[in-house]
Design a protein that fits this description.
Blueprint: H1 5-20, E1 29-32, H2 47-50, H3 61-71, E2 75-78, H4 89-98, E3 102-107, H5 112-115, E4 125-130, H6 135-141, H7 147-160, E5 164-171, H8 177-189, E6 194-199, H9 215-224, H10 226-231, H11 238-244, E7 259-261, E8 264-268, E9 273-277, H12 280-285, H13 306-309, H14 323-332
Parallel strand pairs: 1-2, 1-7, 2-3, 3-4, 4-5, 5-6
Antiparallel strand pairs: 7-8, 8-9
Helix pairs in contact: 3-4
The structure holds iron/sulfur cluster.
The site of iron/sulfur cluster (SF4) has 15 residues, from helix 13.
């Protein structure tokens, strides 16, 4: 099993209910950013740059919960910023889990050991630890020595205490896929439950442009790593992977992964900002979704990000014959 069965059933029944009532656009993953402050300054991070004037602000726990209730997505990804420096992060996570959601807490891993007492293991809660390579490469990407070792220590601590853990890797121009293969082998030996991987998005706020891959380069890099994807337990769906490897085209479904942060509901997506909406409904109903995506908006040209394309298969956009079987086999084998 790739994910706990109860989690798969919960998400599956949510999608079935939406399809039954003929819903066209519905949320799958809420990207919840309670704050943008972080203890690191990673080279490829657009958040700490785009929101530098709001860096000390944060959503209250109640505002976060209201957003979770407002958008209904079955999965909540708590990101930022570094969520572990958010006061009350344990309480917030517990209250989201009480609502029956699946929670991914996206962290650089440095404070897991210090904060772990605030959390309880659950088959719907994942620590999602950012790792872009082995020690030298990761510490270079996050611009500080020692971060890799602390993240690994945090992973060990979480696994010892019975938590689910996955890792999250962003691929840049300099990324060595052979090194990532070694990283995933090491993480497997530590008991890590799955790996997420996606190409970096070319944030306009990031000045070092050459670190980002264009569409063609992404496809070459992911195609060359075919053996690695067969070898390890990736949480990245086979349909999204085919897209990354250039085996199929897909349509952006950014509406399925809405972002809520201190400025409001970020429109149109996690990656680009045209406006912050006051409500989730306003984001969904007053965005002209047809004007975004590859070939429509120049900012989308090299985007193959998971927030645009990963859940497309789950919501039934871009489906081809055999996709349902492929997704089931991926989940259960
Ligand atoms: S293609 Fe990427 S950048 Fe463009 S709207 Fe979709 S997710 Fe956002």
């Amino acid at each position: 099993m790739r994910f706990p069965l109860s989690m798969t059933m919960r998400i599956g029944s949510y999608v079935a209910r939406k399809k039954l009532v003929g819903a066209k656009k519905y949320p799958m993953v809420l990207m919840l950013e309670p704050l943008h402050a972080c203890n690191l300054t990673c080279t490829g991070c657009g958040r700490i740059r785009e929101y530098d004037t709001h860096i000390k602000e944060r959503l209250s726990i109640q505002e976060c919960l209201d957003s979770v209730d407002e958008c209904e997505a079955p999965v909540v990804s708590i990101c930022g910023g570094e969520p572990l420096i958010y006061p009350g992060i344990g309480e917030l996570t517990a209250k989201i889990l009480e609502r029956g959601k699946v929670v991914y807490l996206c962290t650089n891993g440095m404070f897991i050991r210090k904060k772990i007492g605030e959390f309880k293991p659950s088959n719907r809660f994942f620590w999602n630890v950012h790792l872009d390579g082995l020690k030298a490469s990761h510490d270079l990407a996050v611009e500080r020595d020692g971060v890799y070792d602390e993240a690994i220590d945090g992973i060990k601590c979480a696994k010892e205490q019975g938590f689910l853990v996955c890792s999250n890797t962003t691929v840049f121009t300099e990324t060595d896929m052979g090194e990532l293969d070694q990283l995933f082998t090491h993480l497997t030996s530590l008991g890590v439950d799955g790996f997420m991987i996606a190409p970096g998005y070319e944030y306009s706020a990031v000045e070092v442009r050459e670190i980002f891959l264009n569409r063609e380069m992404i496809r070459t890099k992911f195609k060359q790593a075919e053996a690695m994807f067969k070898k390890h337990k990736f949480n990245t769906s086979p349909i999204y992977l085919e897209f990354l490897q250039g085996k199929r085209e897909m349509q952006c479904t950014a509406w399925a992964s809405p972002t809520r942060n201190i400025a409001g509901w970020k429109g149109p997506c996690y990656l680009i900002t045209d406006i912050h909406h006051k409500s989730y409904n306003d984001l969904i109903n007053n965005t002209d979704w047809d004007q975004y995506g590859y070939g429509k908006d120049p900012r989308c040209e090299n985007c193959m990000s998971h927030v645009g394309y990963e859940v497309a298969a789950a919501v039934g956009v871009n489906n081809k014959l055999g996709d349902t079987f492929k997704m089931l086999a991926w989940q259960f084998l």
